[in-house]
From TrEMBL:
This is Glycosyltransferase family 9 protein. InterPro entries: Glyco_trans_9 (IPR002201), LPS_LOS_Heptosyltrfase (IPR051199). CDD domains: GT9_LPS_heptosyltransferase. It holds the Pfam family Glyco_transf_9. Keywords: Glycosyltransferase, Transferase. It comes from Dyella halodurans. Residues 337-362 are annotated as: Disordered.
Length: 362
């Protein structure tokens, strides 16, 4: 940021607009740490989000600080009347702070220029052309997509780089009622009697887009190896939104087209295993430890973090070797049978925490 500029003040910031014109689930979920950090730095703030499509409404429906979620129509230039009407509506508000958290998005930057704000913050190496009042050099952006936005906010508020930041985790803030429904679905799928111990449950999402998708044969070898190494694990498949099992309906499966219901059910398992995709980020945001498997994309940009989640780069590994690494990484959880009544009341599950960090002290 231009060091001749004053940092964005911590006082007097009440109305904030975050510009993230994107319709993908993962990108919306990756925005949740920024909203959490805005709430921490600017207490009492009201936040509007400018997104695309309807997913943002589901992701942020329980965020008390989020007032308006403006969802531009997908391919909005094909619906110019609706598109322009919404933009003109956003432009009526005079914001204290407008944030463009994305590196090198021309569309997002154009929206920032079009809207009205006292301070405008984003990444740019050409501040005089950026339309920003506070620009941060691209070289300062961390690799991880979610952390970039948080770092951007701290730069704007302090002019500082490299300071230690306790990054918020992804979180779509499931309600207690949503979590209770999710736990009930898991028990019903596994036919667990009401008074019985909850078994060890591993959720699997076996879909992804394009080259990120593993073949059915790959998943068959992976699941056979996984069950061989962790026979006490009960598998629940999270069925993709196209409504077809990716594991040949071999395991109990849960299907929904509702993002929050999917999240609630994933919150009811002890561990999620997923290919790199939006549902992987949703699993992390459900506050369940998640193994994200990366075969194509850069794991440093999209890897799950926090609450015991981790990335596993599978390039050069067979499906069997991948399953072995998953079980090794969570050996304290997966190599054992149920050790007692499961506690899904706290997230992540107690058993998963022990698998990562060792048993809790007395």
């Amino acid at each position: 940021m231009n060091q001749t500029q004053e940092p964005i003040p911590r006082k007097g910031i009440y109305r904030i607009l975050v510009c993230r014109p994107n319709h993908r689930l993962g990108n919306m979920v990756l925005l949740t740490p920024l909203i959490t950090e805005l709430e921490r730095l600017y207490k009492g703030v009201e936040i509007d989000i400018l997104a695309e499509g309807d997913i943002a409404k589901e992701v942020f429906s329980t965020f008390f600080s989020v007032k308006n979620i403006y969802c531009l129509p997908k391919r909005g230039f094909k619906r110019p009347v609706r598109f322009l009407r919404m933009l003109l509506g956003v432009r009526k508000t005079q914001y204290d702070l407008i944030i463009d958290p994305i590196v090198a998005s021309g569309f997002s930057r154009a929206l920032v220029k079009f809207t009205k704000g006292r301070f405008k913050l984003g990444y740019s190496d050409t501040p005089e052309k950026s339309g920003l009042t506070h620009s941060v050099p691209l070289s300062a952006a961390p690799e991880h997509m979610a952390k970039r936005a948080v770092d951007l906010l701290h730069w704007g508020a302090s002019h500082a780089a490299g300071a230690a930041i306790d990054y918020p985790t992804l979180d779509i803030r499931l309600t207690d009622a949503e979590r209770a429904h999710g736990r009930k679905v898991i028990r019903d799928l596994l036919a667990v009697p009401q008074q019985a111990m909850t078994p060890l449950v591993v959720g699997v999402f076996a879909n992804a887009t394009g080259a990120k998708r593993y073949s059915r044969e790959w998943w068959k070898e992976f699941m056979d190896t996984f069950r061989e190494l962790s026979p006490s694990s009960n598998i629940v498949e999270i069925v993709p939104m196209h409504g077809r099992s990716m594991l040949d309906s071999e395991f109990p499966g849960y299907f929904t087209t509702d993002i929050r219901r999917m999240s609630a059910v994933m919150a009811g398992v002890d561990l999620m295993v997923s290919a790199d995709c939006g549902v992987m980020h949703l699993a992390v945001a459900s506050r369940v430890p998640t193994v994200g498997m990366f075969s194509v994309t850069d794991a440093t940009v999209y890897e799950p973090y926090g609450l015991g989640s981790c990335a596993l780069v599978t390039k050069g590994l067979t499906a069997r070797e991948t399953a072995q690494k998953v079980v090794e990484s969570f050996s304290g959880l997966l190599a054992k049978g149920p050790t007692g009544q499961a506690s899904h009341e706290s997230m992540p599950s107690d058993r998963a925490i022990e698998a990562i960090s060792g048993p809790a002290g007395p």
